[in-house]
Write a sequence for this structure.
Protein backbone atom coordinates (compact mmCIF):
# COMPACT_ATOMS: atom_id res chain seq x y z
CA UNK A 1 0.00 0.00 0.00
CA UNK A 2 1.44 3.37 -1.04
CA UNK A 3 1.82 6.21 1.42
CA UNK A 4 -0.85 8.20 -0.41
CA UNK A 5 -3.28 5.33 -0.40
CA UNK A 6 -2.59 4.79 3.29
CA UNK A 7 -3.39 8.44 3.99
CA UNK A 8 -6.63 8.21 1.98
CA UNK A 9 -7.49 5.02 3.78
CA UNK A 10 -6.76 6.53 7.19
CA UNK A 11 -8.80 9.58 6.29
CA UNK A 12 -11.79 7.52 5.21
CA UNK A 13 -11.38 5.28 8.26
CA UNK A 14 -11.45 8.33 10.48
CA UNK A 15 -14.46 9.69 8.66
CA UNK A 16 -16.34 6.50 9.41
CA UNK A 17 -14.79 5.96 12.82
CA UNK A 18 -15.95 9.25 14.31
CA UNK A 19 -19.67 8.72 13.71
CA UNK A 20 -19.37 5.09 14.85
CA UNK A 21 -17.67 6.19 18.09
CA UNK A 22 -20.36 8.79 18.64
CA UNK A 23 -23.06 6.20 18.01
CA UNK A 24 -21.40 3.79 20.43
CA UNK A 25 -21.26 6.52 23.07
CA UNK A 26 -24.99 7.14 22.73
CA UNK A 27 -25.88 3.46 22.61
CA UNK A 28 -24.64 2.83 26.16
CA UNK A 29 -26.23 4.44 29.20
CA UNK A 30 -23.65 6.87 30.49
CA UNK A 31 -23.58 7.31 34.26
CA UNK A 32 -22.35 10.85 33.84
CA UNK A 33 -24.64 12.03 31.04
CA UNK A 34 -25.24 15.71 31.79
CA UNK A 35 -28.87 15.60 30.69
CA UNK A 36 -30.62 12.35 31.48
CA UNK A 37 -34.29 11.81 32.26
CA UNK A 38 -36.11 8.76 33.56
CA UNK A 39 -39.88 8.47 33.28
CA UNK A 40 -41.42 5.88 35.59
CA UNK A 41 -44.75 4.45 34.46
CA UNK A 42 -46.71 2.27 36.90
CA UNK A 43 -48.40 0.70 33.85
CA UNK A 44 -47.54 0.72 30.14
CA UNK A 45 -49.36 3.87 28.87
CA UNK A 46 -48.87 6.19 31.86
CA UNK A 47 -45.58 7.39 30.39
CA UNK A 48 -47.24 8.96 27.35
CA UNK A 49 -50.37 10.15 29.18
CA UNK A 50 -48.21 12.20 31.53
CA UNK A 51 -44.90 12.75 29.82
CA UNK A 52 -45.06 12.34 26.02
CA UNK A 53 -44.13 16.00 25.55
CA UNK A 54 -41.31 15.82 28.08
CA UNK A 55 -39.93 12.74 26.31
CA UNK A 56 -40.09 14.42 22.89
CA UNK A 57 -38.45 17.61 24.11
CA UNK A 58 -35.71 15.74 25.94
CA UNK A 59 -34.90 13.65 22.87
CA UNK A 60 -34.88 16.78 20.69
CA UNK A 61 -32.21 18.42 22.86
CA UNK A 62 -30.08 15.25 22.88
CA UNK A 63 -30.82 14.09 26.40
CA UNK A 64 -30.64 10.46 27.41
CA UNK A 65 -34.21 9.21 27.91
CA UNK A 66 -35.30 6.02 29.64
CA UNK A 67 -38.88 4.90 30.18
CA UNK A 68 -39.41 2.37 32.95
CA UNK A 69 -42.60 0.30 33.01
CA UNK A 70 -42.73 -0.78 36.65
CA UNK A 71 -45.57 -3.27 36.20
CA UNK A 72 -46.62 -5.15 33.10
CA UNK A 73 -50.19 -3.84 33.17
CA UNK A 74 -51.25 -7.45 33.58
CA UNK A 75 -53.91 -7.03 36.27
CA UNK A 76 -56.79 -5.51 34.29
CA UNK A 77 -59.51 -8.16 33.76
CA UNK A 78 -61.77 -5.95 31.61
CA UNK A 79 -58.84 -5.27 29.25
CA UNK A 80 -57.77 -8.94 29.15
CA UNK A 81 -61.38 -9.74 28.21
CA UNK A 82 -61.43 -7.05 25.54
CA UNK A 83 -58.17 -8.21 23.99
CA UNK A 84 -59.06 -11.91 23.97
CA UNK A 85 -62.78 -11.46 23.16
CA UNK A 86 -63.88 -13.39 26.22
CA UNK A 87 -66.37 -12.62 28.98
CA UNK A 88 -64.62 -10.91 31.91
CA UNK A 89 -65.37 -13.82 34.26
CA UNK A 90 -63.70 -16.32 31.92
CA UNK A 91 -60.24 -14.80 31.45
CA UNK A 92 -57.32 -16.85 32.77
CA UNK A 93 -53.54 -16.49 33.21
CA UNK A 94 -52.77 -16.91 29.50
CA UNK A 95 -55.17 -14.09 28.66
CA UNK A 96 -53.43 -11.77 31.12
CA UNK A 97 -50.10 -12.65 29.53
CA UNK A 98 -51.57 -11.84 26.10
CA UNK A 99 -52.58 -8.45 27.50
CA UNK A 100 -49.14 -7.98 29.03
CA UNK A 101 -47.36 -8.69 25.75
CA UNK A 102 -49.64 -6.30 23.90
CA UNK A 103 -49.13 -3.50 26.41
CA UNK A 104 -45.33 -3.85 26.31
CA UNK A 105 -45.43 -3.77 22.51
CA UNK A 106 -47.61 -0.68 22.61
CA UNK A 107 -45.19 1.10 24.95
CA UNK A 108 -42.34 0.36 22.57
CA UNK A 109 -44.33 1.61 19.57
CA UNK A 110 -45.41 4.73 21.46
CA UNK A 111 -41.83 5.53 22.43
CA UNK A 112 -40.71 5.15 18.81
CA UNK A 113 -43.50 7.53 17.72
CA UNK A 114 -42.00 10.09 20.11
CA UNK A 115 -38.55 9.61 18.55
CA UNK A 116 -37.14 7.19 21.14
CA UNK A 117 -35.58 3.78 20.59
CA UNK A 118 -36.86 0.37 21.62
CA UNK A 119 -33.73 0.02 23.78
CA UNK A 120 -34.83 3.01 25.85
CA UNK A 121 -37.81 1.06 27.22
CA UNK A 122 -36.99 -0.77 30.44
CA UNK A 123 -39.51 -3.34 31.64
CA UNK A 124 -39.30 -4.07 35.35
CA UNK A 125 -42.14 -6.62 35.16
CA UNK A 126 -43.67 -6.26 38.62
CA UNK A 127 -47.33 -7.24 39.20
CA UNK A 128 -50.07 -4.85 38.15
CA UNK A 129 -52.50 -4.20 41.06
CA UNK A 130 -50.04 -5.49 43.68
CA UNK A 131 -47.63 -2.55 43.87
CA UNK A 132 -49.39 -1.12 46.93
CA UNK A 133 -49.36 -4.51 48.64
CA UNK A 134 -45.65 -4.85 47.91
CA UNK A 135 -44.91 -1.40 49.32
CA UNK A 136 -46.95 -2.11 52.48
CA UNK A 137 -45.35 -5.51 53.03
CA UNK A 138 -43.56 -5.62 56.37
CA UNK A 139 -42.17 -9.16 56.14
CA UNK A 140 -40.85 -8.97 52.55
CA UNK A 141 -42.97 -11.98 51.60
CA UNK A 142 -43.09 -13.16 47.99
CA UNK A 143 -46.37 -12.28 46.27
CA UNK A 144 -48.07 -14.37 43.63
CA UNK A 145 -50.15 -12.21 41.36
CA UNK A 146 -53.73 -13.46 41.24
CA UNK A 147 -54.17 -12.86 37.49
CA UNK A 148 -51.03 -14.24 35.84
CA UNK A 149 -50.10 -16.55 38.77
CA UNK A 150 -46.54 -15.23 38.33
CA UNK A 151 -44.36 -14.69 41.40
CA UNK A 152 -41.28 -13.20 39.76
CA UNK A 153 -40.46 -10.47 37.25
CA UNK A 154 -40.91 -11.16 33.57
CA UNK A 155 -41.20 -9.41 30.24
CA UNK A 156 -42.42 -10.91 26.99
CA UNK A 157 -40.95 -8.77 24.19
CA UNK A 158 -37.52 -8.36 25.78
CA UNK A 159 -35.76 -9.39 28.98
CA UNK A 160 -37.12 -7.87 32.17
CA UNK A 161 -34.70 -5.49 33.88
CA UNK A 162 -33.58 -7.82 36.66
CA UNK A 163 -32.96 -10.73 34.29
CA UNK A 164 -31.03 -8.52 31.88
CA UNK A 165 -28.71 -7.33 34.65
CA UNK A 166 -28.52 -10.36 36.97
CA UNK A 167 -29.31 -13.27 34.65
CA UNK A 168 -32.41 -14.27 36.55
CA UNK A 169 -35.75 -12.70 37.46
CA UNK A 170 -36.46 -11.08 40.83
CA UNK A 171 -39.12 -12.49 43.17
CA UNK A 172 -42.18 -10.31 43.72
CA UNK A 173 -40.93 -8.85 46.99
CA UNK A 174 -40.80 -5.34 48.42
CA UNK A 175 -37.00 -5.50 48.57
CA UNK A 176 -36.79 -6.49 44.89
CA UNK A 177 -38.69 -3.41 43.69
CA UNK A 178 -36.64 -1.09 45.84
CA UNK A 179 -33.39 -2.88 44.94
CA UNK A 180 -34.03 -2.61 41.20
CA UNK A 181 -34.89 1.08 41.54
CA UNK A 182 -31.81 1.87 43.64
CA UNK A 183 -29.59 0.01 41.19
CA UNK A 184 -31.13 1.72 38.16
CA UNK A 185 -30.79 5.21 39.65
CA UNK A 186 -27.20 4.45 40.63
CA UNK A 187 -26.39 3.28 37.10
CA UNK A 188 -28.17 5.99 35.14
CA UNK A 189 -27.66 8.91 37.53
CA UNK A 190 -30.52 10.83 35.94
CA UNK A 191 -30.78 14.60 36.19
CA UNK A 192 -34.61 14.50 36.08
CA UNK A 193 -37.04 11.92 37.45
CA UNK A 194 -40.74 11.74 36.57
CA UNK A 195 -43.23 9.53 38.41
CA UNK A 196 -46.95 9.51 39.17
CA UNK A 197 -48.14 11.69 42.04
CA UNK A 198 -48.89 10.57 45.57
CA UNK A 199 -52.44 11.99 45.30
CA UNK A 200 -53.31 9.74 42.33
CA UNK A 201 -56.51 7.69 42.70
CA UNK A 202 -54.84 4.43 41.61
CA UNK A 203 -52.95 2.57 44.31
CA UNK A 204 -50.25 1.37 41.86
CA UNK A 205 -49.61 5.01 40.95
CA UNK A 206 -49.26 6.06 44.58
CA UNK A 207 -47.02 3.09 45.36
CA UNK A 208 -44.86 3.89 42.33
CA UNK A 209 -44.32 7.33 43.85
CA UNK A 210 -43.44 5.92 47.28
CA UNK A 211 -41.01 3.38 45.86
CA UNK A 212 -39.25 5.87 43.54
CA UNK A 213 -39.12 8.51 46.29
CA UNK A 214 -37.58 6.02 48.72
CA UNK A 215 -35.05 4.83 46.15
CA UNK A 216 -34.11 8.42 45.29
CA UNK A 217 -33.53 9.18 48.97
CA UNK A 218 -31.52 6.00 49.42
CA UNK A 219 -29.08 6.94 46.65
CA UNK A 220 -28.87 10.56 47.77
CA UNK A 221 -30.43 11.75 44.53
CA UNK A 222 -29.86 15.48 43.99
CA UNK A 223 -31.54 16.02 40.62
CA UNK A 224 -35.02 17.31 39.80
CA UNK A 225 -37.98 15.21 40.95
CA UNK A 226 -41.31 15.79 39.21
CA UNK A 227 -44.68 14.11 39.55
CA UNK A 228 -47.49 13.84 37.01
CA UNK A 229 -51.15 13.11 37.56
CA UNK A 230 -53.23 10.47 35.75
CA UNK A 231 -56.16 9.44 37.97
CA UNK A 232 -56.68 12.82 39.61
CA UNK A 233 -59.47 13.04 42.15
CA UNK A 234 -62.36 13.52 42.09
CA UNK A 235 -62.02 13.92 38.33
CA UNK A 236 -59.24 14.75 35.89
CA UNK A 237 -58.25 16.21 33.46
CA UNK A 238 -60.08 19.41 32.59
CA UNK A 239 -61.23 20.11 29.93
CA UNK A 240 -62.26 16.39 29.72
CA UNK A 241 -61.60 16.05 25.99
CA UNK A 242 -58.78 16.44 23.44
CA UNK A 243 -57.98 20.16 23.48
CA UNK A 244 -54.53 20.78 21.95
CA UNK A 245 -55.14 24.55 22.08
CA UNK A 246 -56.02 24.72 25.76
CA UNK A 247 -54.10 24.41 29.00
CA UNK A 248 -55.07 22.10 31.88
CA UNK A 249 -57.58 23.66 34.26
CA UNK A 250 -58.60 23.23 37.85
CA UNK A 251 -62.38 23.00 38.34
CA UNK A 252 -64.86 22.61 41.14
CA UNK A 253 -66.61 19.24 41.19
CA UNK A 254 -69.47 18.83 43.69
CA UNK A 255 -68.10 21.73 45.70
CA UNK A 256 -64.57 20.32 45.76
CA UNK A 257 -61.58 21.74 43.93
CA UNK A 258 -59.99 19.27 41.51
CA UNK A 259 -57.36 17.97 41.35
CA UNK A 260 -57.58 17.18 45.04
CA UNK A 261 -54.58 17.70 47.29
CA UNK A 262 -52.37 19.53 44.80
CA UNK A 263 -51.47 23.22 44.49
CA UNK A 264 -52.93 25.08 41.54
CA UNK A 265 -51.47 26.46 39.37
CA UNK A 266 -48.97 23.59 39.23
CA UNK A 267 -45.36 24.60 39.88
CA UNK A 268 -44.20 23.51 36.40
CA UNK A 269 -46.11 23.95 33.16
CA UNK A 270 -44.34 22.81 29.97
CA UNK A 271 -45.83 24.19 26.74
CA UNK A 272 -46.27 21.82 23.80
CA UNK A 273 -46.29 22.92 20.17
CA UNK A 274 -49.24 21.87 18.01
CA UNK A 275 -46.97 19.31 16.36
CA UNK A 276 -45.91 17.91 19.74
CA UNK A 277 -49.53 17.73 20.91
CA UNK A 278 -50.42 15.86 17.73
CA UNK A 279 -47.56 13.41 18.23
CA UNK A 280 -48.59 12.94 21.85
CA UNK A 281 -52.07 12.01 20.61
CA UNK A 282 -50.55 9.46 18.21
CA UNK A 283 -48.45 7.95 21.02
CA UNK A 284 -51.55 7.60 23.21
CA UNK A 285 -53.42 6.04 20.30
CA UNK A 286 -50.63 3.46 20.05
CA UNK A 287 -51.99 2.28 23.40
CA UNK A 288 -55.31 1.06 22.11
CA UNK A 289 -56.90 -1.68 24.15
CA UNK A 290 -60.59 -2.53 24.00
CA UNK A 291 -61.81 -2.54 27.60
CA UNK A 292 -65.07 -4.38 28.31
CA UNK A 293 -67.57 -2.11 30.02
CA UNK A 294 -65.44 1.02 29.63
CA UNK A 295 -66.25 2.38 26.15
CA UNK A 296 -64.79 5.79 27.05
CA UNK A 297 -61.40 4.42 28.19
CA UNK A 298 -59.54 5.51 25.04
CA UNK A 299 -61.22 8.92 24.95
CA UNK A 300 -60.25 9.53 28.56
CA UNK A 301 -56.59 8.78 27.83
CA UNK A 302 -56.64 11.05 24.80
CA UNK A 303 -58.11 13.91 26.84
CA UNK A 304 -54.60 14.41 28.29
CA UNK A 305 -53.66 16.01 24.96
CA UNK A 306 -53.43 19.70 25.84
CA UNK A 307 -51.24 22.64 24.91
CA UNK A 308 -48.99 21.77 27.86
CA UNK A 309 -47.96 19.13 30.38
CA UNK A 310 -48.09 19.89 34.08
CA UNK A 311 -45.90 18.68 36.93
CA UNK A 312 -45.61 18.98 40.66
CA UNK A 313 -42.55 19.02 42.92
CA UNK A 314 -43.64 17.32 46.15
CA UNK A 315 -40.11 16.77 47.41
CA UNK A 316 -38.85 20.28 46.74
CA UNK A 317 -39.56 21.58 50.24
CA UNK A 318 -38.06 18.62 52.07
CA UNK A 319 -34.78 18.58 50.13
ZN1 LIG B 1 -51.57 3.38 35.29
Amino acid sequence: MSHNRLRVCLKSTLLFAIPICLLAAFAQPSPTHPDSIVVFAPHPDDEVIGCAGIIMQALARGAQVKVVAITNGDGFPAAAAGVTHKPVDQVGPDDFLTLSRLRQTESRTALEILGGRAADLIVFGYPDSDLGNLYDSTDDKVFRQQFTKKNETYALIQKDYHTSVHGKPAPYQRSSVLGDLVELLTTLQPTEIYVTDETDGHIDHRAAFWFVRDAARQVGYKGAFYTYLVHGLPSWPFPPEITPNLRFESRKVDGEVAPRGLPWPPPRRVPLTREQAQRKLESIQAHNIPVVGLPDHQKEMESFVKSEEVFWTPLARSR
Observations:
- The chain is about 40% helix and 15% strand.
- The first strand starts at residue 36 and ends at 41.
- The mean pLDDT is 91.
- Residues 42-43, 46, 202, 205, 230 surround zinc ion (CB under 6 Å).
